[in-house]
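Suppose a colleague, Dr. K., hands you the sequence of a protein chain of 183 amino acids and asks what its three-dimensional shape might be. Before reaching for any lab equipment, you can write down a predicted structure in token form. Begin with the sequence itself:
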Amino acid sequence: MKNKIYYNKDHFYFLTSTISGHRIIFDRDNYATIVIDSLKYLREKRYMKLYSFVLMPNHIHILLKAIDGSTINEIAQKLHSYTGHALLAQMRNEKDWGLLKYFKEFAYYSKNDRSHCFWYDALVRSIVDERSVFRFMEYIHSNPFNKKCELVKDRSEYKYSSACYYDSGIQSIIEVDDVREEC
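The predicted structure, expressed as tokens, is then:
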């Protein structure tokens, strides 16, 4: 994250992370699961409260609150670090040479000091008012069926989203904290 966001325990945060070059990789369950597992870990280990999320084919949106002394910067760093290492291992294990070459070249041309570069810097917005919390959550949940990307007809059907929890009370692939209890 180039621009450090300073932690405020009362703020919600909207975090967006995009795969380098906007490359579509999360249309494959084996790569998507890595990000899902990372979010589960960060929530279970009490780095954050996870209120809503959507994992799209080339990016993720998250509405969260940093807790127990964690900061949004640490959360973004842990998400990128864990998923980057796990994606690299998975691609090597599956001998996905095309993707490995792509992310290696991306690191080289972006003058990144890593061998492979999977993520652009996270974009983070601090949210201080209740109305904005719900507006961002609506944006997150609407992503899979917006004009550019019609992945589903009903947003609660999208596997990698918390929309089903808020729309129909069915727990999503990751347990989420109910934002309505905070606002």
